[in-house]
Amino acid sequence: MGFDYHHFIELIPDINLAFMQTVYMITISLIVAVLIGLPIGILLFVTDKGLFLENRWFKNGLGFVVNLVRSIPFIILLVALLPLTDWIVGSTIGPTAASVSLSVAAIPFFARIVETALREIDKGVIEAAIAAGATPWMIVKDVLLLEAKSGIISGVTLTLVSLIGFSAMAGTVGGGGIGDLAIRFGYYRYDNTIMIATVVILIILVQIIQLAGDFIAKVVDKR
């Protein structure tokens, strides 16, 4: 059975609810990822060899934790974090519960992107700021974040796109959203209409986010 337009019209309320759940999940996760991942990414950079807060042990320890979380497949992380999710939100199902695992997965992902963006800054700019007597906080605020803002915005876009894919996977454990709808209605009931609709919605969402992110990154890039 192919795409049934009339059946699609009947499913619009369910699709709308699932779409809003997905937006809710990825918005919470992105905010958490930026708030925690940004400082982690900065710390990974400034504690590296030759930088103004060089600390090999701290850098290696933090890098190990970041790599450890990143190396765990999301579906396994999703299940492993169920006790933590239950402790934080009081439930293991629904979009709010899924946001916990999404956030944990997104934090190290975004942190590494921030670190990479900072590595592209000309070391001479940092050295000039140090020579001028700037404090570490001033260097971070006025040099690093300013110089790397285009790369960081691109990182936010990439993280957001990845979160959409992860959120679809969260449907396998009752996380809600587009993925949950696709699995419950599309996969289990062999409903091609809902499968096609959810895939198209996700493709459009990713395209809009990518285009908007690329545009903003280009606007703020002063190079």
From TrEMBL:
SUPFAM superfamilies: MetI-like (SSF161098). It is a multi-pass membrane protein. Keywords: Cell membrane, Membrane, Transmembrane, Transmembrane helix, Transport. It is found in: Cell membrane. Residues 19-213 form the ABC transmembrane type-1 domain. The chain crosses the membrane at residues 23-46, 58-81, 87-111, 151-174, 194-217. Belongs to the binding-protein-dependent transport system permease family. This is D-methionine transport system permease protein. It comes from Peribacillus huizhouensis.
